[in-house]
């Protein structure tokens, strides 16, 4: 018997056929009306495709077998080791050597890598045109509590084998949504208790936690900027809980990505009122953080569009201005995502430098977009030049701690092997490690710093010092112009700077 649906593909055929047969048999014994049964099966399968989150947390029987998992989740995949640039082994590091010192610090301390639970363990490969393509062997097609726990165990085996110290999560991605806030909180508590046990055993930590305030229909107008008071309150309750569990898991940061905080049209939007509400929401988050003794850094993650036409946290400069206006700069830093940087028309390097010079660089969501594609593709970063520029900013910032590099990146829809999860993270880690090595070469070589120093040397003078100290008035400068005549202007040496950068790649 053929059952259409999205439960089973590719390598899972064997297990899936068994699952289908068992399921069909159970149902046939109950009803005996084969035609009706087939119709129900068809409808059920369609429901699974359309809304994978509709399977209730407590409804295990109707949503597949959610018993424990025997043995390893990633059998045959060893702990990933550094083998150097000449190795041909895809399951090894070519450039990332965790314990090696670069510029006086271990690579693992410069890079503080983190796995993003939502992409790695909840990413299905679905897109607006097509169904999921990824069916990891440990998934049973449900969103049950048992499945959430099994997934959490897979997460810790993955980060342990990968040799990463941190992980990041959204509340609703690690535990299923309940019918009420109380039920959702209870689900979260149960999964978080297991996560705490597993991360203590594995000696891992949470880089940051966050609340998912954009999937549920209640958040269609936004969360803190929703036009509905009850939604604002619900979001506050959800963030309160997400901060509590992040604190419980020893999280070093807490992130606010603006989800649907933005607008689709200014005609029906009171932008001033919405931004005031957002500021009040963030003030309340600061107050609650202090109340529960959570010392993690609060981070705002800029993004210009998607899902709204105009997100309020457009870019680093806009976010910095928002924080200043509402007196929040001392309480927040920025989490810069490279793909969001390019969506806003900047380079990742520009956004990092804008955050850094404003004292706001807190964390990096390490990913990249595609220059031919206009949306947020969340790809693993593989561009060595981009990685070198990123690491130049990170080194200038003295590192990112307590922040780090979160791989907010997903496999392409067409990459469907379990080992692809490892390969993608390995190449992302190696690219940034190579960027760190190159940045160190640039800094130790000194030619680029010298080029920049020379470019501004006219200000290293008595009058220059007066200007920079705010002591040069227009009358004095006019007098100097009459004395000096036409200014002599030097070359910017851009091509030489590019040549120097090329020499370390
Ligand atoms: Mn993104």
Automatic annotation (TrEMBL):
<dbReference type="GO" id="GO:0009045">
    <property type="term" value="F:xylose isomerase activity"/>
</dbReference>
<keyword id="KW-0859">Xylose metabolism</keyword>
<dbReference type="GO" id="GO:0042732">
    <property type="term" value="P:D-xylose metabolic process"/>
</dbReference>
<comment type="similarity">
    <text>Belongs to the xylose isomerase family.</text>
</comment>
<dbReference type="InterPro" id="IPR036237">
    <property type="entry name" value="Xyl_isomerase-like_sf"/>
</dbReference>
<keyword id="KW-0413">Isomerase</keyword>
<dbReference type="GO" id="GO:0046872">
    <property type="term" value="F:metal ion binding"/>
</dbReference>
<keyword id="KW-0479">Metal-binding</keyword>
<protein>
    <recommendedName>
        <fullName>Xylose isomerase</fullName>
        <ecNumber>5.3.1.5</ecNumber>
    </recommendedName>
</protein>
<dbReference type="InterPro" id="IPR001998">
    <property type="entry name" value="Xylose_isomerase"/>
</dbReference>
<keyword id="KW-0119">Carbohydrate metabolism</keyword>
<dbReference type="InterPro" id="IPR013452">
    <property type="entry name" value="Xylose_isom_bac"/>
</dbReference>
